[in-house]
Amino acid sequence: MTDQRYLKRTINKEVITSRYLPEGERNLRVYLPPGYNEMLSYPVVYCQDGEEFFNFGRIATIANQLILDEGIEPFIIVGVDVDKKLRTAEYSPDGDRHQGYIAFFGEELIPFIEDKYPVRREPSERILAGDSLGGSVSLHIALTFPAMFNQVIALSGAFYPISQKIAEAQADLRNLSLYMIVGLQETAFETDHGIYDFVRINREMKQILASKGAAIAYSEHDGAHVWGFWQKFIPDALITFLLSE
Predict the structure, then answer these.
(1) Is 98 within 8 Å of 197 (Cβ atoms)?
(2) Has residue 5 got a pLDDT over 80?
(3) What is the DSSP string of 161-173?
(4) What pLDDT, on the 0 to 100 scale, is given for residue 225?
(5) What is the spatial distance between Cα 78 and Cα 118, in angstroms, rounded to a whole number?
(6) pLDDT at 164
(7) Structure letter (DSSP) for residue 44
(8) Alpha-carbon span 81 to 47, nearest angstrom
(9) Per-residue pLDDT at 2
(10) Is the distance from CB of 148 to CB of 124 less than 8 angstroms?
(11) InterPro entries given for it (predicted)?
(12) Mean predicted confidence (pLDDT) in 15-29
């Protein structure tokens, strides 16, 4: 049975206006940790697929547990919602909304959050997180704004050939750190780009990024391309970047 303390979550709904997104705005949900105090400052985790990270990944409940019982410093979570019909167009590098979404994220979302909430502004205090194409776009955001982001959580990242080509073109990624997992049952997953072996493309991306100097915590486990698998590794992913030495 889940400890009732973990279920007492503070989640604010926000709407941000945007000149880069055709619809002109985007819904956000912002988790505030137990004991939240505007006079303090907090690390922040930015999640793609915000609604799913909160509803299916249960990231707010997991955050409460880590903060209350596992010694993790309190942190803020920003979930960025996405219209599933437009998800591939925004998250995939060959999508017609991709560049606009990347610009929105770095040039509008971050200033909006940092103006409104007491989040820390160093790259070491910001984490990008995503599942599947959300993991891929998180990496591309970090590559586009290296002075802003250098920590990425990719749960079964959809690292298609176009993403691998972009990574191959990078000269030096020694400042980049990733947490990558993939499920061993993800060898023939049907996507908008065709059927892919996610184990293979994650192994390939790991090798590419490592060859550029990136630090990678990589592992493969029994699991399919579903939230039931990814949810199990959210605690470990957060601990990897948030647990103080």
Answers:
(1) no
(2) no
(3) HHHHHHHHT-S--
(4) 97
(5) 13
(6) 98
(7) E
(8) 9
(9) 64
(10) no
(11) AB_hydrolase_fold, Esterase-like, Mycobacterial_A85_antigen
(12) 98
Question: Measured in whole angstroms, how far is the alpha carbon of residue 231 from the centre of its chain?
Answer: 13
Residue 100 CA from chain centroid, whole number: 18
Which residue in 78, 159, 69 sits closest to 112, CA to CA? 78
In whole numbers, what is the pLDDT of the chain averaged over residues? 95
Q: What are the distances in angstroms from CA 69 to CA 37, 57, 74?
A: 19, 19, 11
- How far apart (Å, rounded) are the C-alpha atoms in residues 131 and 40? 30
pLDDT at 7 (0 to 100): 65
pLDDT of residue 245: 53
Measured in degrees and rounded to the nearest 5, phi and psi for residue 242 equal -110, -15
Q: Are strands 25-32 and 76-80 parallel, antiparallel or unpaired?
A: antiparallel
What CA–CA distance (Å, rounded) separates 92 from 89? 6
The whole-angstrom separation of Cα 125 and Cα 120 is 6
pTM: 0.96
Contacts within 8 Å (CB) and 24+ apart, 101-107? 101/20, 101/21, 101/137, 102/137, 102/140, 102/141, 102/144, 103/20, 104/18, 104/20, 104/21, 104/26, 105/46, 105/80, 105/141, 106/141, 106/144, 106/145, 106/148, 107/20
Q: What structural domains and CATH numbers belong to the chain?
A: 4-242 (3.40.50.1820)
Q: Tokens standing for 51?
A: 């609604």
Q: How far apart are the first and last CA of the chain?
A: 31
